[in-house]
Amino acid sequence: MPFSVAIIGAGPSGFYAAEALLRSSLDFRIDLIEGLPTPFGLIRFGVAPDHQSTKRVVRAYERTAKDEAVHYYGNVEVGRDVALSELRRIYDAVIIAIGAPLDRELKIPGGDKPGVYGSAAFVGWYNGHPAHRDLAPDLETESVAIIGNGNVALDIARVLVKTPGEMATTDLPDYAGEAVHAAPIKDVYLIGRRGPLEAKFTNVELREMAQLADCLPVVDPGQLPEEPAAEASERDRRLQAKNLDTLRSFAALSGAGKRKRLHFKFFSRPVEVLGESRVEGLRLERTRLEAGNVVGTGETFDLPCGAIVAAIGTRSRPLNGLPFDANRGVVTNRRGRVAKGLYVVGWARRGPTGVIGTNKPDADEIAAHIEADLTEAGPSRTSGSGRLALEDLLDERGVAWISYEDWKAIEAAEEAAAEPGMPRKKLIRVAEMLAVLNEPRAAQRDEAD
Ligand SMILES: Cc1cc2nc3c(=O)[nH]c(=O)nc-3n(C[C@H](O)[C@H](O)[C@H](O)COP(=O)(O)OP(=O)(O)OC[C@H]3O[C@@H](n4cnc5c(N)ncnc54)[C@H](O)[C@@H]3O)c2cc1C
């Protein structure tokens, strides 16, 4: 009898966990339980709309989803539709793969003023995440500050400064495109507490900033050190040298005819959000590094801006019955083990770090734990009943769960609705997605009448 495993969350880490279990010597039945109708987590809702080639990784996930041992249960949110404790009763093992979807607060005076947005919410808004559709960020401003020096900050900056032409072959939803392109934004600031050597930008993303149609990247040459850090590893020194070269090369670019500027502000620590009833500016303190630590110099300056996006990290969401490390914002675990029969992978385990592929070794590690734990425990405790018991529970509760084939129907509707050159026109509201599935069923009913 195969062992039954439930994976909560169908983002990259959930798919890598399923894939690792399929490669195992044990026989598994794997159920991927996803809160939204759509699979793939941040590949759909995080990765930038103008980076469609990155999203092609889902082709590998698709092969996993189509394996006969794997079932997809979309539109089933654990904690709302079914409890974690129920899943633990009916499955031999449960894997948490829920990511880190909650924004960290900007903990400075005024950090909660209207006009300050967390990056998860802001990125979710321009990527059509149902939970962030109604964010309606106020972009009636000439100047936006983005706090953070990683690729997420660069993604947000690109979306704010690219022209409608540059976004024409993306899946940016209409409402977001209209809001961004009608906004009078001229200056976007990327704020980092540390310097260019410590910035987490990958070089490919940084280089893209030199190719923007209507925006000039601007760096203060005085903030660029001559050399990579002496104490860094050989690999890090190579990466730092590349980024330094790229940042230096920006000085040679011409801004003639370009309306927008993207300012890299290093060694600047946000200390206060300024404004009466909403954001009017950001007060920053100049910093320097001492033995790798950020030290304030006491010297401050004010940056006028009408919107702030804080790309300062995210945390996972505690689920009832799940031990949670509130400080780190992750599920408490020891190398992926949470408790007997309970495991965690991906951003829920490590926090928001690394690239898509970084989630793979996690998955391999917990697949090995599960294999060892179940081999030790003996024959399947649930005799493979997890799936049937789950479907009974969901049907009893009237949960409108959807299968992988249903998702493919939603995807086909999105592709059919796309303008030429666009990959898809995303359906945003859950009800709109479910309506696609009801259409043929309703039509069949009409025919029968
Ligand atoms: C803005 C942004 C841009 C990025 N761009 C890149 C890039 O260009 N290249 C790159 O390599 N990496 C990129 N990344 C990183 C990459 O997206 C992550 O490494 C990866 O998505 C993490 O996978 P995960 O499965 O842990 O989490 P997620 O992708 O967040 O997936 C978690 C899934 O769990 C579901 N879920 C949550 N709670 C529940 C629940 N209670 N019940 C059921 N389901 C639930 C969610 O709906 C989601 O589908 C980016 C990240 C962000 C934030």
Write structural notes for this entry:
The chain is α/β, with parallel strands linked by helices. It has two domains: 185 residues, Rossmann fold, CATH 3.40.50; 213 residues, FAD/NAD(P)-binding domain (3-Layer(bba) Sandwich). Helix content is 33%, strand content 20%. The chain is built from 14 helices and 19 strands. Strands 3-2-1-4-19-18 form a six-stranded mixed sheet, with helices on both faces. The chain has a six-stranded parallel sheet with strand order 6-14-7-8-10-9. The protein has a three-stranded antiparallel sheet with strand order 11-12-13, with no helix packed on it. Helix 1 links the parallel strand 1 and strand 2. The longest helix is centred in the last third of the chain and has 19 residues. The radius of gyration is 24 Å and the shape is globular. The two termini are 44 Å apart. The relative contact order is 0.18. The model has no long low-confidence stretch (mean pLDDT 95). The structure holds flavin-adenine dinucleotide. Flavin-adenine dinucleotide binds next to helix 1 and helix 6.
